[in-house]
Amino acid sequence: MENRALLVGVTGITGSNLADQLIAKGWTTFGLARNPPKNSKNLHPVAADLLDLENLKIALKEVSPTHVYITTWMRQDSEAENIRVNSLMIRNLLEALAPYQSVQHVALVTGLKHYLGPFEAYAKEGFLPETPLRESQPRLDLENFYYAQEDEVYAAAARDGFTWSMHRPHTIIGKAVGNLMNLGTTLAVFASICKATGKPFQWPGSAAQWNGLSDVTDVSVLAAHLIWASTTEAAQNEAFNVINGDFFRWKWLWNKLAESFGIEAIGFDGTIHPLEEQMSEDAAIWKKIASENGLQESDLNQLASPWHTDLDLGRPIEVMTDMSKSRKLGFTLYQSTEGSFYDLFEKLRADRLIP
């Protein structure tokens, strides 16, 4: 039977890059989103609303995927609403696919909030897990929409007989526009504004993040990991951390990023300087930069997500992730984190998204 992938969230940072890898491997690939790209070569667009079960049933009628990759979520105002909405999305999706009995595997992308807690508690004092983070660590005694999403997959797998895999990346580094969580592009835009205006490239986060060990996940590594786990028998019905495979300290990387833009870095000075505050007046400045440099996107909010970058860089603990489980089962792909950022900056310049 041919591999037929249904990629849910195809316009996002993970989904768009996963689509490229699946298509390159010769998979018949369907990309689901409210407004999927219609001119992407070899991608079959599926326009659907995950919150509308009847709409999904109609949209998925002719798809019959063997593999489903869920790479999207909808941010709400509270964790209770995050749970309600994001679990409903998955429940609707798998219910709409159930009658066809074509699904062999479902892969769900979540993240390290599995260990750190939801946004309201995000690694605050009192919710500090032991690092390195390992898949064997139990769930926190907190409401968490990642747990609700997982439970929907488990329930549907028991009902329909497919296998599953859970993928928990750290901060994802890769190119996307209009993404809710995009630290790499946010820092690229911030550095570009600093260079154009002379504003300091000021470290926005905590002392723990500045001095401690950290890691990130290149989107190409995550995409390869999703395909590997969904096609490797030993990886079925398992949860996995996914990172590049190296560790770094931000006090080293921050200077490297500044050097790549030809600006001077200012490190931790004893105070947190949230990026959301530093960039609060930058929308008009970015429009001017975009106009003067012929950039493709003049809306700062389509490129930068400082609120999420602040959550990552403001944690009161260092965060590093153990990936031994995947290594033992045969996934050996490695990516230099410094290279991840430089590759992203090159792509953003080539696509005229930053000067």
From TrEMBL:
Q: Which Gene3D superfamilies match?
A: NAD(P)-binding Rossmann-like Domain
UniProt cross-references to CDD domains, sorted A to Z: 5beta-POR_like_SDR_a
User: Which residues belong to any copy of the PRISE-like Rossmann-fold domain?
Assistant: 66-355
Per its UniProt record, what InterPro entries does this chain match? NAD(P)-bd_dom_sf (IPR036291), PRISE-like_Rossmann-fold (IPR055222)
Which top-rank group of organisms is this from? Bacteria
Q: Which SUPFAM superfamilies match?
A: NAD(P)-binding Rossmann-fold domains
List residues traversing the bilayer. Answer: none
Q: Which residues form the signal peptide?
A: none
Pfam family of the protein (one): PRISE
Name of the protein this chain belongs to: Nucleoside-diphosphate-sugar epimerase
Organism name: Flavobacterium xanthum
